[in-house]
Design brief:
The complex is a heterodimer of chains A (about 110) and B (about 110). In chain A, strand 5 and strand 6 form a beta hairpin. Helix content of chain A is about 0%, strand content about 50%. Chain A has no helices and eleven strands. Chain A is an all-beta fold and about 110 residues long. Chain B has strands spanning about 5, 10-15, 20-25, 30-40, 45-50, 55, 60-65, 70-75, 85-90, 100, 105-110. In chain B, strand 9 and strand 10 (about 100) form a beta hairpin. Chain B is globular. In chain B, about 0% of the residues lie in helices and about 55% in strands. Chain B is mainly β and about 110 residues long. Classes of the chains: A mainly beta (about 110), B mainly beta (about 110). The interface of A and B includes residues 45 and 94 of A.
């Protein structure tokens, strides 16, 4: 099925460990996004990529890095995980201004 | 001030009721508007776009009021399956193409 695929779906990390969240879309979208969602905080933008080869910081970029590997793939890396990064992470993509986002199914990350 | 504000609710209504949510936005250059539905522990899914003239999809009606800078979602004849969190989203002209700003969501529970 066409859409946005995120892996893994669940992950538990120890403080200080690193990991990469993977995201791929097969809709030929230019723009891709990483959000985190915490109770009472709504969706907060971490990083985004308007097109292949470009990335920009969102509202809460500290502690994260991203790579837009190609048009399909946009990964999010936690270099040294902290308990404050316990959250649900969503990747999304869009075909442009009038189309809204398609979200991946999310990654539930717990940092202990 | 947040770009997009929503009443978080919760709204608790009986089956068959009509319920309305509002969402205000702060930037008059906002250009595209959407309502998303998010079920518990799932990703947000596009419910409907909001057009200037208003639009309807079955029991759901979306409206835009540019003068007062708000969008609304009306659900008629509520069903148990409508229980979810509803997120509004706004794209701002001049911001990164396609980037959406989300409200924190309004929680709806429909009871038998």
């Amino acid at each position: 099925n066409a859409g946005v695929t995120q892996t893994p779906k669940f992950q538990v990390l120890k403080t200080g460990q690193s990991m990469t969240l993977q995201c791929a879309q097969d809709m030929n979208h230019n723009s891709m996004y990483w959000y985190r969602q915490d109770p009472g905080m709504g969706l907060r933008l971490i990083y985004y990529s308007a097109s292949e080869g470009t990335t920009d910081k969102g509202e809460v970029p500290n502690g994260y890095n991203v790579s837009r590997l190609n048009k399909r793939e946009f990964s999010l890396r936690l270099e040294s995980a902290a308990p404050s990064q316990t959250s649900v992470y969503f990747c999304a993509s869009t075909g442009g201004l009038n189309y809204g986002y398609t979200f991946g199914s999310g990654t539930r990350l717990t940092v202990v | 001030r947040k770009e997009v504000e929503q009443d978080p609710g919760p709204f608790n209504v009986p089956e068959g009721a009509t319920v309305a949510f509002n969402c205000t936005y702060s930037n008059s250059a906002s250009q595209s508007f959407f309502w998303y539905r998010q079920d518990c522990r799932k990703e947000p899914k596009l419910l409907m776009s909001v057009y200037s003239s208003g639009n309807e999809d079955g029991r759901f009606t979306a409206q835009l009021n540019r003068a007062s800078q708000y969008i609304s979602l009306l659900i008629r004849d509520s069903k148990l399956s409508d229980s979810a969190t509803y997120l509004c989203a706004v794209n701002i002209r001049g911001s990164t193409l396609g980037r959406l700003y989300f409200g924190r969501g309004t929680q709806l529970t429909v009871w038998p």
